[in-house]
Write a structure and sequence with these properties.
The chain is an alpha+beta fold and 295 residues long. It has three domains: 2-67, Uridine Diphospho-n-acetylenolpyruvylglucosamine Reductase, domain 2, CATH 3.30.43.10; 71-195, Uridine Diphospho-n-acetylenolpyruvylglucosamine Reductase, domain 3 (2-Layer Sandwich), CATH 3.30.465.10; 217-291, UDP-N-acetylenolpyruvoylglucosamine reductase, C-terminal domain (Uridine Diphospho-n-acetylenolpyruvylglucosamine Reductase, domain 1, Alpha-Beta Complex). 28% of the residues lie in helices and 20% in strands. The protein is built from eight helices and 14 strands. The protein has helices spanning 27-36, 87-96, 112-118, 148-151, 178-195, 217-223, 252-270, 285-291, and strands spanning 2-5, 17-24, 43-44, 51-53, 62-65, 72-74, 78-82, 131-137, 143-146, 165-172, 230-231, 234-236, 244-246, 279-281.
Length: 295
């Protein structure tokens, strides 16, 4: 498909159209699509969380995994997942089966593939601390099984070719005490729902938390007076200062302007340079450098 609007496929409800868009429901179909692109990199859209797409579009072809990639299965001591499996579904399956460790992903939006790419979890533990392996397919059709040491996971990121497309993973899920599992999941969900923004379009946390002993990102944003700041249809949330919400007609440029001002103020007043937690599609490199998104 050509010129496909993407805004409604993202949690922020922001972004232009993809010049080309396709769904892949199986490995065979995925390889066919990649072959048609002749090795050209493709952008993979999961649940649309942690993503800002330019008002002019993503700057390349976009692919969504579907069909068999949405499946997941609770096994004896693990959970086998397709990369398009909804993270919420996998987490609740682990909770119902009384499996340890999945509380760190409670109330996290998106897909398993996105969680692997971002190393989603808490500040202390990410999904790659539990992933036994993950398989990815490259634009040339080659496939590789990756383990933790291959991707060098860090807080909110991994070291992996951005062109690699996660397709399958197996995550350790040892049986645990049912009451303990229920308590961990319940406490985590309650805390997140109380503190974070779930009733307005937002991508999730905008900035990574600086390393201790520095204050958290929301505290820094609060300190420099940016809570509630607004540019166009985008506003830094009054509930949680590390969230930017779409008030209904926000554009990517509105979000970028808020982020640039926030980063500048925090650096000017505290000496700390915030680093984005989100991914960007179609944003010029010079702007990404200003935002601290280019490592």
């Amino acid at each position: 498909m050509r010129d496909v609007p993407l805004a409604e496929l993202t949690r922020w409800k922001i972004g232009g159209s993809a010049p080309a868009f396709a769904n892949a429901s199986s490995e065979r179909q995925l390889r066919q699509l990649l072959a048609e692109l002749g090795g050209q990199p493709v952008l993979v859209l999961g649940g649309g969380a942690n993503l800002l797409i330019s008002d002019d579009g993503p700057g390349g072809p976009v692919l969504m995994l579907d069909g068999e990639f949405k499946e997941y299965e609770v096994r004896e001591r693990s959970i086998y997942c397709g990369a398009a499996a909804p993270l919420s579904g996998v987490v609740q399956a682990a909770r119902r089966a009384s499996r340890a460790g999945f509380w760190i992903l409670e109330a996290v939006p998106g897909t398993v593939g996105g969680a692997l790419r971002l190393n989603a979890g808490t500040a202390e533990e990410g999904i790659w601390d539990r992933a036994l392996w993950a398989e990815a397919i490259w634009p040339d059709g080659s496939k590789r099984r990756l383990r933790r040491d291959d991707v060098k996971p860090r807080y909110r990121g991994i070291d992996l070719d951005p062109g690699a497309i996660f397709v399958w993973t197996e995550i350790a899920a040892p049986p645990a005490d049912a009451a303990r599992v229920e308590e961990e999941h319940g406490q985590r969900r309650e805390a997140k729902l109380a503190a974070q923004v779930y009733d307005q379009p937002t991508c999730g946390s905008t900035w990574k938390n600086p390393a201790p002993p520095a204050p958290s990102a929301w505290q820094l944003i609060d300190r420099v007076g940016m809570r509630g700041a607004r540019r166009g249809g985008a506003q830094i949330s009054l509930k949680h200062a590390n969230f930017i919400v779409n008030l209904g007609d926000a554009r990517a440029q509105d979000v970028i302007e808020l982020m640039l001002e926030t980063r500048h103020r925090v650096h000017e007043e505290t000496g700390i340079l915030l680093e984005p937690e989100i991914h960007f599609w179609g944003i010029p490199e010079e702007v990404l450098r200003e935002l601290g998104a280019v490592r």
